[in-house]
Protein 1
Amino acid sequence: MLKQLLWSFFLSGMLLCSQPSFALAKFGHKIVCQLAFEHLPWAKQQKLTQLLHLVPKEQQTIINHYNRLKKNTPLTFANACTWADAIKKHPKRYPLFKKFNSWHYLNVTRDLAAITKAVCKENCLPQAIITHQQQLKSSPISWQSAQALLFLGHWLGDIHQPLHVSYASDLGGNKLNFAKQQGHCKNMHWYWDACLIKKAKRSKKQWLAHLNAQWHKNDTPAYQAKQVWYWANESYQLIRTPRFQYCQLNSQNICLRPKGKIKLNDNYAQHYLPIMEQKLLKAAQRLNRILELSL
């Protein structure tokens, strides 16, 4: 009986460990970076791979552990794009990286109508993209330029997750709990990180095929630094729409926090999944343009 019980626990643990992660910090970021990589010219792919070889073994181990892979799994750009989140789990071990925590998002005041360059001078998501693009382009090939590459891949995913451009008072929707849990997601931010993408019920291979089929339908201009504010504003305008259920605009155009717990509309996922698909596609295409210019 004891043996059967232990075996049951073992199987349960294996099943849990084998489940794919649908958090944007993993699944979504991997999709963005894999797509961007696949559409680079061969010479640029080779240079990117050269930079991946400069990631220290210790950091590769952290990436693999975060992605539930074996310690010595070869590093891919898709997996490496989760490094900016993985490193946050080791603040005492790597205190120098702690300063980048605020670079994952942009917090603004609730009366702001639109995102412009004036809203942030430093230590925020749009500026993070500008900083690391310049670093990747200008730095000699080194661990520092490899860091810039890994950060850039991550930042492009973050700026296209709408709630990474929002308000500090509710931690970008992390404090906006649901009246009824949505899958395993308990709040609005978590839902947009994880459960909305999961609604598609696609594997990574299926997601890549689905978005690759749309790749040439969008006209993506060459990268310029000023574009990052436009990208941030895209996300910001989305969260301010009533249908998003994050923001209640009053007569003074101030975004009020919803009262009580949130009950998502019945067709919420049906409406927003295609929008999230386009956000992932845009993130990949814009990252691709940045890498074409910077590598």
Protein 2
Amino acid sequence: MMFTALHRALGFPPGPITVELLDTAVEREIEEADDLDWKSKLPAAADLKNSDFSKDITAMANSGGGVIVYGVTENQKRANGRRDTGELSEAHERSLHQIAVSAVSPPLFGLNVIQVGEDGNRAVVVVVPSSTEGPHLIYRGEYFGAPIRNNADTVWMREREVAAQYRARFDAAHNPSTYLYELYDETSTDRDTADRAWFIAVAHPKSGASRTVRWSQEQARNIFKDAEKYTLAVAPRTTAHPLEFVDRENPRPGLRRWIAPNTQITDSVRSAESWISVHFDGSVTLAAVVGGRYRNPVPHGESPTHKAWQISEQVIEAAVSDFMALIRSVGTRIGAVEYEVRIGLPWHGAEPLTLYRHGAYGLDEFNGSVPIHRFIPVEATVEVRPNDDDRFCQQVGDLALDCINQGGVKFLHLIKQSDDDAAIK
């Protein structure tokens, strides 16, 4: 699934781009915007170099990404009809991608070209990602310029706007993790890490995010609902997931974010405490107690099954899976391509962290685990491309392994593995 400017303009949830989507846009006379552009005709492959195609996709990229629809006519910027674009051959599609990398500097990668409809009713939808490499320039003869969207129009950047984008690019290159570290510190602040080991995970879009989105409460609910679906496809509910212990149906507003608050407030299930937030800029945070966990929530008054520094490696796997599922759910909606992530297990007690796994007959196994005197936070760049389930599962497993390997645990026991990974095990 994907969530594009077209879905947003129609008020539709994430899903494929279909001819029905375009027909509905025409019926509602949806207006062009800085991230949505109607074009009646797709330039022929032979005319691409002399057409406005490179200018249009570059303007979208410089403006935070968006959608260009070929095969929809407009009047006063509003969609008012359909026009068949003809068959999009494989060679023609290759030419579109080639223009994006050969006629644009720096090259614009990640263009998604989609043809919908049948003979007589065909359209081509070009989804343009955002980019951290802006400003992108196009050359015309001996001159070059940086186009950008201004509401429904494409205009040329002025010198100060070009300079501002260059500064933003260089600042990002110099301090790629500054915001991520600030987000991590904010998420881990005031956690009682001297009494209980916590799982802290944060993520921020690195590239491909279209823009800040002020989610409604209903949209936040749907983010959590999709995240549950994604995570259970990777890590079955054979151990507790942090997503189970937050109020997903009634998220609370925060500062440019929605917060799914903890629901485990009694002493007997306090060890399952979890907090999740999804930010309007696409960031995601997850904080969950992982030390001193019960196997499952138990009646009030019973003692924890394990010590505060003892952590089930399956619980780590479930937490990583939930975290990545949240990234995928948010990233799909804002068109994010890459995320920077940071995962830590803050603990300031006297004993070293120790991982265990659930063995046979209800017994827990500590054999082979190595005391973790200092957990090294796991940092990585992950991709959240729509419909790439195999890549998603692989990345969830890689992150989880980076965490549990530090405690001497060699293999995953909850997250589904590929046949190759299973054979290695």
